[in-house]
Amino acid sequence: MSSALAARSALNARLASTFTRRSLRPLVVHARSVSDDAYVPGGPIYRGTVNDPTTFPPPSKSHGSYHWAFERLLSAGLVPLTVAAFATSSSSYPLLDGLLGVSLVMHSHIGFDSVVVDYLHPRKFPVLGRIMTWTLRATTVGVLVGVYQFNTNDIGLTELIAKVWHA
């Protein structure tokens, strides 16, 4: 009786492995080898999923260490630029006033862009991330136009701050 039981369990195991192999065959990518019953560690391998290697973006000089160095240089350069702009009169040096205005706007743009990239990345928020990125760009262009108009057609940025300071 034990030999009949062993034969029956061996037959069931053989049928189960045959049906399993046939049902998974369309999903599994087989590498033809000596044995068709080769064991694949970890289960079947699917193409086009987590098994694919990571693709890296092409290197760009505007990102990475160059970008970081530009941000730090701009931030450190704002200190002497602000002191120089307020130590002199803006009517005497309009170029210094314009340079301060553009530097402040670019410093603010880089800071807000970091917030958008960190918290509203387009991969996680495909619609809202792109909307906020383009809103920031449009706002930066609008503010640059406004700073240019204010510096050329009105009293200028440093004179405005000096008047507000002494008011």
UniProtKB/TrEMBL annotation:
It is a multi-pass membrane protein. Belongs to the CybS family. It comes from Fomitopsis schrenkii (Brown rot fungus). InterPro entries: CybS, SQR/QFR_C/D. It is found in: Mitochondrion inner membrane. This is Succinate dehydrogenase [ubiquinone] cytochrome b small subunit. A ubiquinone binds at residue 119. GO terms for cellular component: membrane protein complex; mitochondrial inner membrane. It comes from the Eukaryota. Its main location: mitochondrion. GO terms for molecular function: heme binding; metal ion binding; ubiquinone binding. Pfam families: CybS. GO terms for biological process: mitochondrial electron transport, succinate to ubiquinone; tricarboxylic acid cycle. The keyword tRNA processing does not apply. The keyword Transmembrane applies. Heme b binds at residue 107. Keywords: Iron, Membrane, Metal-binding, Mitochondrion, Mitochondrion inner membrane, Transit peptide, Transmembrane, Transmembrane helix, Transport.
